[in-house]
């Protein structure tokens, strides 16, 4: 936690406990794992993972945030405790599922941060909450996802998703197995033993294909306004999938652009910079005006 960090309500945060004995056991709610439960959190921070990933991308992150923030690691269906649900193949299905699943946890100020596919999820979830007249996140962090851009010949209404190598070639969820595995090797972020073992790949391939279908088929609804949320963008300076120029383009797609933070590295830069990214998330939120008081807890 950075020096003199403040909570979402502007109150200096107490440092987190470092003793194993006093550390609470993780709690689980549907798609969410809270590694450090807080009885009356000043803010809930939801972290969304990349395509083919899981909440384990953020293992250990909770300790980097103020002690009265509850950090919520979100799994998309098709993995972990949601394995039986099966992967969802469109952003509409995934967002509808998460709106229902996260609703009980949106009873106080909250914020979203998502990496790659997780950035898309955070963006569309924020937009859906706003469209339904619900409380929206205080802040949205998008990492390694380029967001909307015009499709060739489609004019202002169309968009092109980030496909292989940033938009060129066949959509990833339609690639033959060998090509998809090779593409994943080139990007990094996937354990080599999973990609090299035919049996393991057969188990996890439906999850990868479902997640990439979410990303590759995504289009914003015609005329849909961006979510009315302060938005900060993060990325790797050597990312070949979503280059820095694509990330900088976010300034044209949100009325509340809060800047771009680039770190050394590729598409999975954040694995080497989790402390720095967590510090920037904390600073982005604590510089916002104080949040309204949280509603009293029901007993």
Low-confidence stretches: 1-21, 152-161, 163-168
Helix proportion:
25-40%
Distance between the termini: 31 Å
**Rounded average pLDDT:** 84
Order of helices and strands: EEEEHEHEHHHEHEH
Strands in their spatial order, largest beta sheet: 1-2-4-3-5-6-7-8
- Tell me what portion of residues adopts beta-strand conformation: 5-15%
Provide a brief overview of the structure.
By secondary structure, the chain is of the alpha/beta class. It is built from seven helices and eight strands, in the order E-E-E-E-H-E-H-E-H-H-H-E-H-E-H. Strands 1-2-4-3-5-6-7-8 form an eight-stranded mixed beta sheet, with helices on both faces.
What are the SSEs and their pairings?
Elements: E1 27-29, E2 32-34, E3 43-48, E4 69-74, H1 91-102, E5 110-115, H2 117-131, E6 140-143, H3 177-187, H4 192-196, H5 198-216, E7 231-236, H6 244-248, E8 257-263, H7 274-286
Parallel strand pairs: 3-4, 3-5, 5-6, 6-7, 7-8
Antiparallel strand pairs: 1-2, 2-4
Helix pairs in contact: 1-2
Characterization of this structure:
α1 (91-102) packs across α2. It is globular, with a radius of gyration of 19 Å. It has an 8-stranded mixed sheet, with helices on both faces. The chain is an alpha/beta fold and 299 residues long. The chain has helices spanning 91-102, 117-131, 177-187, 192-196, 198-216, 244-248, 274-286, and strands spanning 27-29, 32-34, 43-48, 69-74, 110-115, 140-143, 231-236, 257-263. Helices cover 27% and strands 14% of the residues. It contains 7 helices and 8 strands; from the N terminus they run ββββαβαβαααβαβα. Mean pLDDT is 84; it is low at 1-21, 152-161 and 163-168.
